[in-house]
Amino acid sequence: MPQTAPTPTRRRKRPALSIRDRNRQRILLAAGEEFAEKGFTAAKTQDIASRAELPKSNVYYYFQSKENLYLRLLENVVDAVLEASALLRECDDPAWALPAHIRARLHIARQWPHAYKVFASEMLHGAPHLPSEWLQRLRAESRRNVECIAAWIDRGLLAPVDPQHLLLSIWAATRTYVDFDWQIAMITGKAQPAADDFEAAAMTITRLVLRGTEPEPAARLRPLPL
Known about the structure:
Blueprint: H1 19-42, H2 45-52, H3 56-63, H4 66-87, H5 94-111, H6 113-124, H7 132-154, H8 163-179, H9 181-188, H10 195-212, H11 217-220
Helix pairs in contact: 1-2, 1-3, 1-4, 1-6, 2-3, 4-5, 4-6, 4-7, 5-8, 5-10, 8-10
């Protein structure tokens, strides 16, 4: 029996953040801006504290060191990327799974724009600070998604495109809203993408991907392997 798309659940109202959680969040957001602008080596703990409008001692109290703060920032992005990646396999229907994956990746760009830039820079430089187990998880998740897309193609649910390059194209399209904000500003006239820009991006990328991978009618009739 074909798997149906998961039924959306009603979101519960989140409890108010404690002072500790609010301070940690302020520091992480400030650190994302500082590391994205200056890089790990040039970023200073005092400047991060100033951006967060908190004493420098608070940065050390919550994160102990600049290195640990940098890792916690990257961990937030890695966790979000892994969650977005897993969505691709949550439903055995590419018409649901691909849009869900696209929206989740754009949500990271919207929620953690500076931290996502830091993550991208870290990967471009060979991931010198990422623990090896994190890299292994990211590689394994990517392989699983390529295999998932390949299986959809074999079953005639998608057109016979290259699954690796389809995944890379989705990543490139969604990462544009983080890495190339200057290009977006040139086109939209906005310094930063707004909520409606991300919604338009999700709809446009989804339409291009689904239409571009739509199988021929005959391929849809291919029986499932026994």
